[in-house]
Design brief:
The structure is a homodimer.
Chain A (H helix, E strand, L loop, with lengths): L1 E5 H11 L14 E7 L2 E7 L3 E8 L5 E5 L1 E6 H10 L4 E6 L3 E5 L3 E6 L18 E6 H11 L14 E7 L2 E7 L3 E8 L7 E8 H10 L5 E6 L3 E6 L2 E6 L18 E6 H12 L8 E6 L3 E8 L3 E8 L12 E6 H9 L5 E6 L6 E5 L7 E6 L16
Antiparallel strand pairs in A: 1-5, 1-7, 2-3, 2-6, 3-4, 4-17, 7-8, 8-9, 10-15, 11-12, 11-14, 12-13, 13-25, 15-16, 16-17, 18-23, 19-20, 19-22, 20-21, 23-24, 24-25
Main location (chains A, B): cytoplasm
Keywords (chains A, B): Cytoplasm, DNA replication, DNA-binding, DNA-directed DNA polymerase, Nucleotidyltransferase, Transferase
Protein name (chains A, B): Beta sliding clamp
Chain lengths: 391, 391
């Protein structure tokens, strides 16, 4: 392989594929970035056991000249660091049997390959029976941010580390839950995918990596197969295995009967939860929310350290305010993460009783957009359940 | 104690004193921030065994009302977090025997005191026999950045964790060394301090904390005593113990006889060292620098992984270029830290032979400013000492 490429283009390409390079993989080649040069251009690939990131620079890009076709697998971190510190000039890459030579006007570097054989990279993701959809990158990024934080971080139930992705006609829905909190959002697609598509569980980490690297402009094409998924936008492409196992049924979890619905300013509620978090130092980050006629009262207590109450006034319509104050208790850290993932200015809080899931619904004016969050309340001793109103 | 103060003022004041609050101190009170309100205003103090940071808000500041004099010691981190999350409004503070009440329009919080007795804070730093100097904050920040990184991080020789501070007539000199590298800078003061003042060793950490918090505008007054030092600028004040023990003699370390002097572009040399660092993965971060007629050649080798050579052209006068290439070897990490601390565009590299300290002198046009860096070379096996010139 021999190519010449502008440092800025090579650096940008590496930024797209580095996140997938495995840190200490079972297959040594996966610690590297694969370069493949052919008549079509230069393709960079970073891969781990679950996800593959690819970036393709086409041969008609003036930043690239392919002088000799071929491939090589280069140690990811060292290669990335080296390219980062080169000046903005042309970089000549030439792969030998054991080394890659990297040359600019002022630099010559020889780097041992991570693997002699580029074929050690797993070639095939099983993309069969695919359903294809197309979504603007802006919408996709927003949806992924809305749900991915709620997936389980523990691998105790592997399938919960994923995001459930459903296509139904022209509607795409994403759901994530770790069993205590749940995040759901759905969006109308511009192109209809036709009939009811499959349910696929995409690893949350893969999905957020893709969405974080992705630019705001343009569209992503998503191909959902039986065992794998492909997301592609321009030169950038991700392939990921899907998570197996049955995703729990999530459709009936939102309480059908609602008692109280209030509207709050998202940033004010978040600020209040952050303040109250300072004094909810126990493991459960216990926090109480009391609905009173004029406002919500957030309160937290840390035994021996102090106590806090913050009032948050309504910021829109309210209904079903109970005669006696209604208090729910919950994990403040979870509430914080939910509120941080909401882009809307205002949010509705829906309560169905102290033991029923707390519902948050972002007030979103975009047509066809829907989102809600569920948070299981914490049962608390009665003594904590009635904060005194601040004077 | 009862005061009302604008959230923004209280938050800013806390930012100045928090860095000194001890994390798990022998004296519990030191984990707190002390508030003292009196006719003069409100003073906040954070303190550890070595350093005290103080911020004073005078009573004529419209952001402050002292309603009742008194003091309290509040848990530092919780207090800081709470104030950060309050809205920009008036904050009423009222200290009881065991609790501080913090109240805004929407928030009421009671926080257990860190200590019942504010007097547990050490009262006296021994500021006797002081020499006083005055220096612009801009110059002080620059000087501290130039030297403090070179102090020892290990406490094996306690005195080397400090910065040697000398006043001689109207000149202030700072020196720091860990035994392998040394950083020196000196500056002409606007006000002459008179005769030769004392040598004091100020803990490097205290000095950089003060300099980092300090704004660019204004002046600092420095009072150097026998056992302690005080730095003060406007409302902000630091007291620190000095380090005892004899500071090693540093005056004769710079080689008197110089063979070769070359001028380089600081940022280009730093970029080259950062690039070569990628392949100097051993513990010593071994790197070679070869002086050839037209340029410097930096090279590094990582056994089994690769090798690298970067050329850096001269960027100014050179003298004493040897007929045969002259190579010195050194710790690349140390070289990087030195170069990062240099604000000047260009730097002179002075060599007195492969076994003599490498000297770096920033090219600084400010009148009266002087600075240099010394780096002890690493002795290397002959086989590494002659890089081939890149084509």
């Amino acid at each position: 392989m021999r190519t010449v490429i502008a440092q800025a283009s090579l650096h940008a390409a590496l930024q797209h594929v580095m996140p997938a390079a495995a840190v200490s993989p079972a297959i040594p080649a996966l610690s590297g970035i694969r370069l493949q040069a052919d008549a079509g251009g230069l393709t960079l690939t970073g891969s781990n056991e679950v996800t593959r990131l690819q970036y393709h620079i086409p041969s008609d890009d003036p930043a690239l000249s392919v002088l000799e076709e071929g491939g090589a697998v280069i140690p990811a971190r060292r290669f990335g660091d080296l390219i980062r510190y080169l000046g903005e000039e042309a970089v000549a890459l030439e792969a030998g049997k054991e080394m890659l030579q990297i040359r600019t006007a002022g630099t010559v570097c020889r780097l041992a390959l991570a693997a002699r054989d580029a074929s050690e990279f797993r070639e095939a993701f099983d993309l069969t029976d695919v359903v294809r959809i197309r979504i603007s990158n802006r919408d996709l990024k927003r949806m992924v941010k809305q749900v991915s934080f709620a997936a389980a971080s523990s691998e105790a139930r592997m399938v919960l580390t994923g995001v459930l992705c459903r296509v139904d006609g022209s509607r795409l829905s994403l759901t994530a839950t770790d069993g205590i909190r749940l995040a759901f959002c759905s969006s109308e697609l511009e192109d209809s995918a036709g009939e009811m598509g499959p349910s696929a569980v995409i690893p949350a980490k893969s999905l957020s990596t893709y969405a974080q690297i992705l630019g705001d402009a343009g569209f992503s094409r998503i191909s959902i197969g039986t065992n794998a998924v492909e997301l592609e936008s321009g030169r950038f492409r991700m392939l990921s295995s899907l998570l197996g196992g049955a995703y729990p049924s999530v459709d009936g979890l939102k309480p059908a009967r609602e008692l109280t619905r209030v509207t709050l300013h998202t940033a004010s509620l978040l600020q209040a939860v952050e303040g109250a978090s300072v004094l909810s130092g126990d493991q459960q980050h216990l926090m109480l929310l009391t609905v009173s006629p004029k406002q919500a009262i957030l309160s937290s207590t840390s035994s021996g350290t102090g106590e806090m109450q913050v009032t948050v006034p309504w910021d829109g319509p309210v209904s079903g305010i109970p005669a006696a104050p209604l208090t729910v208790s919950f994990n403040g850290k979870y509430m914080k993460e939910m509120l941080r993932s909401i882009a809307s200015d205002r949010v509705q809080l829906v309560l169905a009783g102290p033991d029923r899931p707390i519902v948050l619904e972002p007030v979103d004016d975009r047509p066809g957009a829907e989102a809600y969050y569920l948070l299981t309340p914490i049962r608390t001793p009665a003594v904590l359940a009635s904060p005194t109103s601040p004077a």
